[in-house]
Amino acid sequence: MFDLGWTELLLIGIVALIVVGPKELPGMFRAVGKFVGKAKGMAREFSRAMNDAADQSGVGDIQKTFKSAANPMKTAMDEVRKTTDSVTRDLNAATKPPLSPDQQAAADKARAATAEMAEARKVPKAEAAPAPEKAGAKPKAAPKAAAPKAKAAPKAKAAPKPSAKKTKAGDEA
């Protein structure tokens, strides 16, 4: 409603201090505060009474009707969604036709191949999982082969650092 910032309030306070005077200023602010409080209370009571009257007269139903009339595409799409949901449910509930023997054999073959591929993926994961858990156990052949390769690169990078220190030490001596 009113947009008063700190600068506007400061200006109002200075003008009030000059016009009213420092002795009567607290009493005036108290009276203005009471007036504003009463006005807010009356506005709140009026708003509550209007909302109650609107609820009793069925304005909420009219408001829903106006909203649906204002946006007919949304209302139509809601009805389409309801219809398609019920049709989909009915189709899913209906029994599916049985597969022919050729189709059944192909489906079984695909399921078996998928199961084999899943088992093949699980085996490497199962072998790799226990190795990190056992810190003191010796790693198997595959991890040993991978470990020296990983360690070789850091050693090659670390080698120049000590040689650089030795040259510094040799330069200082």
A few lines on this structure:
The protein has 173 residues and is mainly α. It has helices at residues 6-20, 25-57, 59-70, 72-93, 101-128, 130-133, 141-158, 160-172. The protein contains eight helices and no strands.
What does this structure look like?
This protein is mostly helical. It has a domain of 81 residues. The chain is 84% helix and 0% strand. The longest helix has 33 residues. About 10% of the residues have low confidence.
- Low-confidence stretches at least 5 residues in length (pLDDT < 50)? 142-159
Largest pleated sheet: none
User: Averaged pLDDT, please?
Assistant: 75
Coarse structural class: mainly alpha
Give the ordered list of helices and strands. HHHHHHHH
